[in-house]
Each structure stands twice: as structure tokens, then as C-alpha cells.
User: Fold this.
Amino acid sequence: MRLSVLAIVISALFIPRVHAAEKPISATVYVAGDIADCRKIPPLENMAAKTAELIAAGLAKDSMARAITLGDNTYPVGKPKEFGKCYDPTWGRFKDKTLPSPGNHDYGTPKASGYYNYFGELAGPDRRGYYATQLGKWLILSLNSNLAPAQMQVQLKWLKEELGSNKQSCTLAFWHHPVYSSGGHGNNKNMQEAWTMLAAAKADIVLTSHDHDYERFAPLDANGDRDDKNGIRSFVVGTGGARLTPMFFPKGATEIRDNSTHGVLKLSLHDKSYEWEFLSVPGQSLIDKGRAACH
Assistant:
């Protein structure tokens, strides 16, 4: 009897331990560009205040969520007083949870000093306007589409290094000028090289604004051709508060577009997939939602 008990105890010591499955990690971001314009309407009464309410409500429910700005944070020229008196009372409410990027209107003030002075370290190191971070299993890249050619080459070298060392499951990049858009400004080739690098690295999402509208494209390859398997899914989200603007004919890869609704794009970033949903301000309604797997 004693030998049997001893045998059971010994065998138990050598039973392989079963480790609990790693808990999935998800992150949520709220996204828009072309935001705060107080030239005709006071800050707390304009559309930037209404889109800010959408984000503030989401952040109140999830302390780990973040806001992303896609440039043109203030109008007309990104002066410090525009950030202090127009942006700060609206989207500035969650400044400490914001991942910003600059637009051409932010550079309306020399060296975008209003933007860099306001956001400080949040805008990335050395006032260069680009940086990388991680949310959950995602590599997040904030790029600067306003750089002069020599500075752009430095940014592209940095981007190549970041993509080459990336060990995350999924990749999202954002900046201001869209490579592909059917809005009034149309396609902008300023970031074509960056797009090509991201496509080669099988990045999953690119977010831009500049055109004051909302547009979602089918996944596109390095040349802008549809590639549902490996292409980049891109969104233009210029609906953060500034006046909406006309659109031209849709592109062949346009899946949905609208220039009558202010709001923000909500992205739920999971370990190996993502979901998107456009959130409209009260009184307006645009429905766009879906999900996809990472490459």
C-alpha cells in the first residue's frame, strides 16, 4: 500500500504542467484629422467640440484607449494661440492620451512651432514630427508628410529600420496627406515611397486626412492596385471638426465615402485582427463598420 502511494506521488511530480493560454491583448484608438477651427464659431460650440465628446466618452470607458490626430490640428495657420484657445478646450481635454501628427496648416506657422510647443514630447523626438510606439500587438507609426526632400529621406531611412526590426503581429501607420483620395485634393505622391515600404512590409492600415471627408479604400498594393490578400487598407478621416469639402468621382478602389458627416473612426486593434466603426456626431448619421485579419 505504501509503495502504491509513493508511486502516485512520484508520478505526479513528472506530469507536464499545462500553462494557461496567453490572454489576448486589444487596444482601441479614436481617429480624425482636420480638427479645430474657431474662426466663426466658439470652441465649445463647434464641431471639434462634438467630435471630442465622442472620444472623451470612449476614453472614460477604457483608460488604455488613445486618440490619434491626422494633422491640421488647428486653423488657419497653427499659431500657439490657436492651440491654446481652440484645440485645447476641445481635443486638448485628452491631450495626455493623444498620438498626434502634423498637417500643412500646422506648418502655416514657421517650423510648426505652435504644434511642437503644444504637444511637446508627444510629437516625437527632436521636433521632427515622426515616431513609433506600440499598442497591444500593434506597431504604430506616426509619420510627417510635410517634410522637405532631404528631411523626408531621413524619415524614410528611419521607417525602413523600424519596419525591419518590427516583431509585432500587425502594423498601422498614420500621417496627413493621403496617397490615395477622391476628395478635393486628390492623390498626393509626397508619401508614395513610405507607402511602398509599408506595402512591402505587409502593413495593415494607413490613416490620413487633408481632404475634409471620410473615405475607405479596398486593400491596395505598392502601386495602388487592389490586393485583398496583402494590400494596405486605408482610410481618409478628415472629419474632425473643420468644414467638410467637395469630392470628385470615386476611385476604383473606393468602398465607401461621405462628405456630409463629422465624426471619428474607432479602431479596435486585436492580436491578429482589427475592427473599424465610424462614429457620427449627434444629429448626423454615417454607418461604416467591418473587420479584417492582419497579414
Observations:
- The chain is about 25% helix and 20% strand.
- Residues 149-164 form the longest helix (16 residues).
- Residues 275 and 291 are 4 Å apart (CA to CA).
- The first strand starts at residue 27 and ends at 32.
